[in-house]
Write a structure and sequence with these properties.
Number of strands: 2
Order of helices and strands: EEHHHHHHHHHHH
Radius of gyration: 23 Å
Structural class: mainly alpha
């Protein structure tokens, strides 16, 4: 092990000296080294599992944050409470990037492959998304700490999962009896409908309430088809989750340890990859089926 002299005293340059022989006369401890490597692997495996949970549940209407809170009851991440609270939100950036990649052409108003009208339609779409963000953004900024203190726990999550599961079944049954034709063109989504969907998104500030579930339900109730409601929900998640992640990172601070940074990056990468599969699955599923199965 490399040594360095500090004020005349030889010290180890790295903590690895605990596992090597000859550092300050400390005998090597291979069992400690093996245990340390084993614990690192277990931590990464737990992070991968949580990334999979996030990638699947972010886009399916079953609450990603709620499932992450419940998963932590079984997959103990062995990190501080403050880090886990931040991790449960910021890991969703990986999932959001999946939407950006899959819908980059549709969301890019400057694409050279679009004509003038298509570019204007994309700009109008973004104005509707921004309008729909305001209700949740205002309530979230004002009441974030209060909501976390009162609702960030497994009993609330379990209750909300049950409530929204029942609502999905009720609303889908109601839709089957309705003779009204749903709106199938995203460009026909009005500003009023966009704002209404944004109001439904406020419900997702309570853990256990699926953000995509609440906005999709809102869209369906306001007259959108399942596909239009799902796509607008995906797009709405981009500014919402970037804003929520920024808020959590600022509150946590930027002084990440190496372990915390690795855990965060691994979680986001895994959630990104799994989200691509989940989004494609959901869009294919709702073309032939309703949402009652998720209820």
């Amino acid at each position: 092990t490399r040594l360095q002299t500090v004020t005349g005293v030889q010290t180890c340059a790295l903590p690895i000296c605990l596992y090597k022989e000859g550092c300050l006369g400390i005998p090597k401890h291979p069992s400690l080294y093996r245990q340390g490597v084993f614990m690192d692997i277990i931590l990464l495996l737990k992070t991968v599992l949580l990334g999979i949970v996030e990638g699947i549940t972010e886009w399916l209407p079953i609450s990603s944050t709620g499932h992450l809170i419940l998963a932590d009851e079984f997959i103990k991440l062995n990190m501080t409470g403050a880090f886990k609270e931040m991790f449960d939100v910021v890991i969703q950036l990986g999932a959001i990037m999946a939407v950006v990649v899959l819908y980059f052409h549709k969301l890019n108003p400057f694409s050279p492959k679009k004509n003038h009208r298509e570019k204007m339609d994309t700009i109008v779409l973004w104005t509707k998304v921004i309008l729909a963000v305001f209700p949740a953004a205002i309530i979230g900024i004002l009441f974030d700490d209060w909501l976390n203190a009162h609702f960030y726990n497994p009993p609330v999550v379990a209750a909300m999962l049950i409530i929204y599961g029942i609502l999905f079944i009720i609303i889908e049954n109601r839709n089957k009896r309705s003779r009204r034709r749903p709106m199938n063109d995203l460009t026909r989504l009005s500003y009023g409908m966009a704002l209404g969907i944004g109001v439904f998104q406020v419900l997702a500030l309570i853990p256990g309430t699926s953000r995509s579930g609440a906005t999709i339900l809102g869209g369906i109730l306001l007259g959108c088809s399942r596909t239009v409601a799902a796509e607008f929900s995906f797009f709405l998640g981009i500014p919402v989750m970037f804003g929520a992640s920024l808020l959590k990172i600022v509150k946590f601070g930027l002084a990440f340890t190496t372990t915390q940074l690795i855990v965060l990056i691994v979680g986001m990468v895994v959630s990104f990859l799994v989200s691509i599969v989940a989004i494609k699955f959901l869009l294919g599923y709702i073309k032939k089926n309703d949402f009652k199965a998720f209820g």
